[in-house]
Design a protein that fits this description.
Elements: H1 3-8, H2 13-33, H3 41-62
Helix pairs in contact: 2-3
């Protein structure tokens, strides 16, 4: 299964929840990084880590499919 078919394949409910959590983490991290007020360096660094972790969590969760679930007919893996 190539990356496009994997991204289009159905995602299990658990990973849908993880994807949502990852998007929230990325949003919170981005808000902290781009805050219009002066924040301590530690807080901005943590915001950066949140943004990266949220992005990775969302991407991995989106590309996860159920084991044994074939959304396409066999032989259509090209």
């Amino acid at each position: 299964m190539n990356i496009v078919k994997r991204a289009k394949a159905p995602t299990p409910n658990f990973f849908k929840a993880l994807r949502t959590i990852g998007l929230v983490l990325a949003a919170v991290g981005s808000i902290v990084i781009t805050a219009p007020v002066a924040l301590p360096v530690v807080v901005v660094s943590i915001g950066g880590y949140f943004a990266v972790a949220g992005g990775v969590l969302s991407a991995v969760s989106q590309l996860t499919t159920s084991y044994g679930e074939t959304p396409y007919p066999k032989g259509d893996d090209n």
